[in-house]
């Protein structure tokens, strides 16, 4: 009995470490990408990141080993298209507002999917916390510090994340983790014209390409693997609660690497949204899947 408790404790510690490493990896990739915006622009680095990420995921998953059922092809195409658009939008938000704030706004999307599908009275508390945090972040005043366009891009990314989860349910049920690899490949193909339209010679310089590979690894391949390990070891509420810390991780890394300073009000807003996300995770009954997190 004692041995089993010890094994369970180690599993939780390993799983928790995997979640934190995954969140740090994704945000670190975003921070490195943001340093390249002045060289190749947000559209350019998005195209490079998605393209290289698709290659890494295809090599990791090798989804070509099985055929995609014909009745899933249109659903898979929609899934990939939303994934590509979500990446474009969130990187445009990163270019205009601090990473931690952009992530806080973006997580409203999956949170809304959970809350709007529930009718329990306590969920209205999480909804109120999320809405309150969002209202604190929105540039409703003329002297607001946040770029309204950046906030708009983050809100659009949140809507895409919600749509991504809904469209991904069908394809992930049939294809499992291969759906993410195939979806990323479709996203890369659809984003290609954006990359061509915003092409600069610097995009394929050794410096940018090296960092692009690092960004793709940090933002796709590594967190994908870490999340799978975490989900094997952690109960669903614990996993969801830890993932809700993503905005705080983003804010800390944004400050450490990019010098992004947040006001007290913005920190309060982020904490409200994190509380809503963590609270909904603790009281929800669904099992998280790898497709619940954007790649």
Structure description:
The termini are far apart. The chain has 295 residues and is mainly α. The relative contact order is 0.22. Helix 2 packs antiparallel against helix 6 and helix 3 packs parallel to helix 11. Helix content is 79%, strand content 0%. It is built from eleven helices and no strands.
Keywords:
295 residues, mainly alpha
Short précis:
With 295 residues, the chain is mainly α.
Furnish the topology, listing elements before pairings:
Blueprint: H1 2-61, H2 73-94, H3 99-106, H4 108-116, H5 121-137, H6 148-175, H7 178-197, H8 206-233, H9 236-243, H10 246-258, H11 264-283
Helix pairs in contact: 1-2, 1-7, 1-8, 1-9, 1-10, 2-6, 2-7, 3-6, 3-10, 3-11, 4-5, 4-6, 4-11, 5-11, 9-11
N to C succession of SSEs: HHHHHHHHHHH
Quick one: how many beta strands? 0
* CA-CA gap between termini: 39 Å
Number of helices: 11
**Major sheet: size, sense and barrel closure?**
none
């Amino acid at each position: 009995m004692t041995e089993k408790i010890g094994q369970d404790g180690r599993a939780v510690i390993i799983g928790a470490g995997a979640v934190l490493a995954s969140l740090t990896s994704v945000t670190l990739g975003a921070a490195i990408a943001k340093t390249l915006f002045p060289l190749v622009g947000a559209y350019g680095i998005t195209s490079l990141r998605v393209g290289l990420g698709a290659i890494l995921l295809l090599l990791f998953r090798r989804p070509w080993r099985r055929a995609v059922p014909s009745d899933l092809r249109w659903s898979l195409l929609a899934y990939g298209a939303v994934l590509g658009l979500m990446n474009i939008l969130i990187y445009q938000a990163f270019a205009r507002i601090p990473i931690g704030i952009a992530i806080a706004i973006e997580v409203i999307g999956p949170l809304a999917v959970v809350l709007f599908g529930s009718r329990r009275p306590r969920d209205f508390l999480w909804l109120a916390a999320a809405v309150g945090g969002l209202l604190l972040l929105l540039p409703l005043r003329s002297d607001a510090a946040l770029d309204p366009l950046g906030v708009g891009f983050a809100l659009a990314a949140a809507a895409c994340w919600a749509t991504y989860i809904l469209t991904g349910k069908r394809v992930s049920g049939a294809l499992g983790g291969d759906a993410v690899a195939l979806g990323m490949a479709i996203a890369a193909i659809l984003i290609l014209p954006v990359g061509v339209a915003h092409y600069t010679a610097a995009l394929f310089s050794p410096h940018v390409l090296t960092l692009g590979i690092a960004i793709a690894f940090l933002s796709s391949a590594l967190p994908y693997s870490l999340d799978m390990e975490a989900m094997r070891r952690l109960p669903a509420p614990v996993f969801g609660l830890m993932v809700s810390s993503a905005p705080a991780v983003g804010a800390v890394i944004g400050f450490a690497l990019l010098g992004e300073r947040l006001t007290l009000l913005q920190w309060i807003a982020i904490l409200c949204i994190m509380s809503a996300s963590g609270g909904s995770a603790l009281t929800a009954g669904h099992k998280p899947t790898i497709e619940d997190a954007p790649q």
